[in-house]
Amino acid sequence: MPSSAAAPGPAERRADRRQRSAVPSEQRLFSLVLALVVSPFGATKRELLSSVYGYADRYRHGETSVALDKQFERDKDQLRTLGIHIETFEDPHETGNNQLTRYRISKERLQFPADLRFSERELMLLRLAALAWSEGSLNAESRRAAMKLEALGAGLDVQHLGIAPRLGAAETSAVPLQRAIDAGRAVRFAYRLPDRATALPRRVAPLRLHRAEGRWHLISWDLERDAARTFLLARIEGRVQQLSEEIDPELRLRADAAVADLERLHAERRAVLCVRRGSIAEARLMSRTNVDAASRPARCGASDHHELEVGVLDLHIFSSELIGYGADVSVCEPAQLRELVVAGLRRIAAVHEALPASAGDDAGRQATGQGSAVDA
Fold first, then answer.
1. Residues 205 and 223: beta-carbon distance below 8 Å
2. Exposure pattern of 104-116 as b/e (b: 16+ CB <10 Å)?
3. What pTM did the predictor assign?
4. How far apart are CA 236 and CA 155, in angstroms?
């Protein structure tokens, strides 16, 4: 008697290979790990195949896909080969029914051992490796993976998400800057400050790439001003030009002091926020604050909010992040940060108000009234 799940024919196998090739395996595995970590009670194979990026585009509800099942098994084996332990739980009422088996990755098992230490050079190599990874095709899909996780259904707690899929935009200037640092050469580039309409030329001796608050900074010595300067790579425009001018090796000794100044600024410049409990904003901001301080009641008076105090390096960039959290966050202080957030929200509101006039129909008005997202 023929099986209801017939083996795929040549045409189906070719189509499946084309679909698999459209999703790099690293992205699929990354999304699978996130899904298995974020669900405290585990997820069934059907839940994973229907929701995780790399599977969901081939999943058809009510249908059996032999190729997709095999892909899932191969991915589990690959994760185990990488040393990632996947826990399985059988339904006590349906022992042996693998469709009801739940899978989970313990967050604690993914953490570094307490006694593991890296040298400064090793940390730099790891950071550059992470940067190279983010310069590939993972950026947009890692954000898509986070949205997939939120769509998995009830019972998911964003605070269990130990891996933050926020790799940010690729910093194309990082590679030429690191090459110049290794070669001991000066560089020239254009740098745009947030309050200026045009970028300004800079000629500096690059000393070190330093990551702080999830963003890359260039620790350098400004050759025109004869002073230490730190530049945010996200604000470097155009091409970084490596010059023939060799830098004084003694300048490298100033890098540690510049990093210390950056850390001191982060410790001294504080932002007090009113954050909704259980929100994604809380999960992402909690790691930047003192846990003891997180128990303070919110001065905004909302019972489902509490107060967080975090260090801030760049008020303009931090305001953009806070705007993305919407009503889940409000700024208590400093006043400058609050003004930047209010100004950003007003710009978004202005775009919303302009949409009906440009669309010229009631559908546009209804979409705007429902708070549809606008890329501002």
1. yes
2. bbeeeeeeeeeee
3. 0.51
4. 42
What pLDDT band is residue 124 in, cutting at 50, 70 and 90?
Answer: low
Q: In the block, which residue shows the tokens 């960039």? A: 317
Query: Which residues in the chain belong to E strands, given as ranges?
Result: 43-44, 87-89, 102-104, 185-191, 200-212, 215-222, 227-232, 236-246, 270-276, 305-311, 329-333
User: How confident is the model over 294-337, as pLDDT tens digits?
Assistant: 556 777 777 778 888 888 988 998 998 899 888 889 999 999 99
Query: Is residue 344 a contact partner of residue 331, using CB atoms and an 8 Å limit?
Result: no
Indicate the DSSP class of residue 297. Answer: B
Contact 35, 152 (CB under 8 A): yes
Residue bearing tokens 């890296």: 118
Residues near 33 by Cβ (< 8 Å), separated by ≥ 6? 79, 84, 105, 163
Instruction: Give the contacts of 154 (CB within 8 A, at least 6 positions apart).
Output: none
Please state, in angstroms and as integers, the Cα–Cα distance from residue 108 to each residue in 81, 126, 130, 243, following that order. 18, 21, 21, 47
Cα–Cα distance for residue pair 140/24, rounded to 1 Å = 13
Q: Nearest to residue 284, comparing CAs of 315, 341, 322?
A: 322
